[in-house]
Amino acid sequence: MACDIVALLLLLVAVAASQPTSTADGQEPGSQAGGHHISGIDPGNFTAIHLAYASYCPSKELEQWNCQWCPSMYRFVGISFDNVTGERAFVAYSSVNKTIVVSYRGSVTTRNWIADFNFIKVSYPDGHDVRVHDGFFKAFNDTRANMRKYVAMAAQACPDCNTILATGHSLGAAVAGLSILDLAAVPVAGTQNYTFQLSNFGMPRVGDQAYAELFRQRVFPSTRVVHNHDPVPHLPFEDMGFHHVYTEVWAQSSDAPNAPQNYTLCDGTGEDPTCSRSVPVYELKAEDHDTYLGIYNNGCHS
After folding, report:
1. For residue 262, with 0-12 CB atoms within 10 Å meaning exposed, 13-18 middle and 19 or more buried, which class applies?
2. φ, ψ for residue 201 (rounded to 5)?
3. Separation in Å, CA 229 to CA 98, 101, 137, 288, 295
4. At what angle do helices 171-185 and 209-218 cross, to 10 degrees?
5. Do 231 and 193 contact (CB within 8 A), yes or no?
6. 264 by DSSP, 3-state: which?
7. Which terminus in the chain has less CB density within 10 A, N or C?
8. Can you give the pLDDT at residue 27?
9. Is the pTM above the cut of 0.90?
10. CA-CA-CA-CA torsion for 183, 147, 154, 47, nearest 10 degrees?
11. How many whole angstroms separate alpha carbon 302 and alpha carbon 91?
C-alpha cells in the first residue's frame, strides 16, 4: 500500500504543477472560513475506523467476524465483491448501537488504483445536474445490488436499528459516500425512517459542487477525517471540477506512541481554506494516509 501511495504522491505533484494558481486566500466566493480546534473527537469515529479497517481483512475472517478490527458488538451480514474494479464491501449491524454499517475497502489492487486514477466525471443518475468521478461510481454501482440486499437483511434482523452508517478509508471512503447518498435517496425496505450518516477517513473528492450540495441535503451527520498531510484528500483537484462533501475534521497529530491527538473542526463548505486545503503540495506525506485517529492501518496483517 505504501508504494502505491508514493506513486500517487508523485502524480499529485506532477499534476499540481500544471494547475492554475489559486486566489491569494484560496476561499470560495460567499464561503466563510471557520476551522476551530476541538479537544476530542466523537467516540463513534473510533468504532468507525475499526469498521473501515475491517474491510481490508480476509473474507473468511469477516464471515466468522473474528478479524483484528471486527468490533464485538456488531454482527456480520454479507460481503459484496466486484471483479471488475476489485472493490469489496460488507454489511454488519449492532443491536446495541442500533446501527447498520456499510463498510467499503480502500485500494489494495491494481484494478482499484485504475479506478482511483481515472478522473473522468459522469452524470449521477438521479435527475439532478450532478456529476461524479467515473471510477468511484463504477465501484459503487457494481456492488450496489448486493449491498442493498444485505442492508434489507440487516434491517429485518435488527428491528430496533434506526441508523445506517457508511464508512471507509481511501477509495473505500469515496464509495461509502456514494453508497450512503443512494441509501438515503432510495431507502431499502424497513429503513425509510432511518438516519443516514457518514464517518470516513482519507476520502478523495467524489463529485462536483452540485454533488456536494445534494449530499448535504440527504446525509446528516457527515464527518470526513483528514490526517495531517495525507495527499489523497487533495485528489482529484478542485480545478478539475471536483468539490469535497462536508464536514472535514483535520487531525494534526504526531504518530508517536501515546502522543496527544489534536483536531480542528472545519467549516461546512467542504473546502475550508484554513484546514487540510491549506497544506502545499510539497508538504504532503504519503505515510499520513495509513494512520488515522492514531491507529495504523496494517491491511489486517498484525
Report:
1. middle
2. -145, 130
3. 34, 28, 26, 6, 16
4. 60
5. no
6. strand
7. C
8. 33
9. no
10. -80
11. 23
Strand-pairing partners, residue 37, are 264
Give CA angle at 147 (146, 151), nearest 5°.
Answer: 120
For residue 296, give the nearest of 253, 262, 234 by alpha carbon.
253
**Euclidean distance between CA atoms 262 and 99, whole angstroms:** 28
Average pLDDT over residues 134-154: 95
How far apart (Å, rounded) are the C-alpha atoms in residues 284 and 282?
6
Q: What is the Cα–Cα distance from 238 to 28, expressed in whole angstroms?
A: 11
In the chain, DSSP finds a helix count (H) and a strand count (E) of 7, 13
- Grid cell 504543477 in the structure block, residue: 17
Q: What is the mean pLDDT of residues 219-223?
A: 94
Q: What is the pLDDT, as a whole number, of residue 32? A: 40
More confident residue, 38 or 272: 272
What DSSP string describes 160-216?
A: T--EEEEEEBTHHHHHHHHHHHHHHHSPPTT-TT-EEEEEEESPPP-B-HHHHHHHH
Cell numbers describing residue 296: 495504523
Confidence check: pLDDT of 58 > 80: yes
Res 117: pLDDT: 61
Are 161 and 154 contacting, i.e. CB atoms less than 8 angstroms apart?
yes
193: which residues sit within 8 A by CB, 6+ positions away?
162
In the numeric block, the cell 476530542 is attached to: 40
Give the dihedral of Cα atoms 180, 181, 186, 190; nearest 10 deg.
Answer: 30
